[in-house]
Design goal:
The complex is a heterodimer of chains A (about 80) and B (about 140). Chain A is mainly α. Chain A has helices spanning about 5-15, 25-40, 50-79. The model of chain B has no long low-confidence stretch (mean pLDDT about 85). The chains are: A mainly alpha (about 80), B mainly alpha (about 140).
Chain lengths: ~80, ~140
């Protein structure tokens, strides 16, 4: 017998979500997680973690946007 | 040296705990705040992956071999996802959904590998006499 708890916990893990939107937005939480864990391994004083992780996150996202713009220009030039 | 011997932790147990539950190795060696950060972030990333793609396809050695070797570093989470994927009613995912799910779960596994290595490094530095590993900004070399 499936309990309410079972429904809440098991169904999302058993059944995939329908994902129709752009995947690019999902890059933001992923890179934020990477930034936090990476900076937590590097910093001795964790009080500096929020700012350091935020700066790294902005650097990653900004870098990827710059690469995307660069590739877009490159393709537009040689098409 | 007597102080460092008192604080000495079993490195094998640290690695096992760090692999099984993200952050547990750091908890064991006394880095409680760091342990919570690792636990929350890696659990959220791996959980998002399984939530989006379902356990059956996201963690699958046969159909998703390359990513499986990244996910396996998430320890108990991967083993749990393998078990959930065997439950009746588990549905396979494809395409964009599966891509996104495997990236999240795989990155979570690789981040836990980094955390395991960090736990080993901190465990080693606990038993050695204090050395100047920090620079003026508080970052490790």
């Amino acid at each position: 017998m499936m309990t309410i708890f079972g429904l809440i916990m098991a169904m999302p893990l058993l059944t995939p979500m329908l994902f129709d939107g752009s995947r690019l937005w999902m890059l933001l939480p992923l890179t934020l997680g990477i930034s936090i864990v990476y900076k937590a391994t590097k910093l001795e004083d964790l009080r500096a973690l929020p700012v350091a992780a935020l700066l790294l996150w902005l650097t990653i996202v900004g870098g990827m946007i710059a690469v995307a713009i660069g590739l877009y220009i490159l393709i537009a030039l040689f098409q | 040296m007597a102080l460092s011997e008192e604080n000495e932790k079993n490195i094998g147990l640290t690695v096992l705990l760090a692999w099984l539950i993200p952050g547990a190795g750091h908890w064991y060696i006394g880095e409680r705040k760091r342990a919570w950060i690792y636990f929350i972030v890696i659990t959220l990333l791996f959980g998002t992956g399984i939530w989006v793609g379902g356990a059956l396809s996201t963690v699958n050695l046969q159909t998703n071999t390359a990513w499986f070797f990244a996910e396996i570093f998430a320890g108990s989470y991967t083993l749990l996802a393998l078990l959930i994927g065997q439950l009746p009613g588990a549905v396979a995912s494809y395409g964009k959904t599966l891509d996104l799910a495997t990236i999240y779960a795989g990155v979570a596994g690789l981040l836990n590998l980094l955390v395991v290595l960090d736990a080993i490094d901190r465990c080693h530095s606990m038993v050695k006499p204090m050395s100047p590993i920090s620079n003026s900004k508080g970052a490790r070399s």
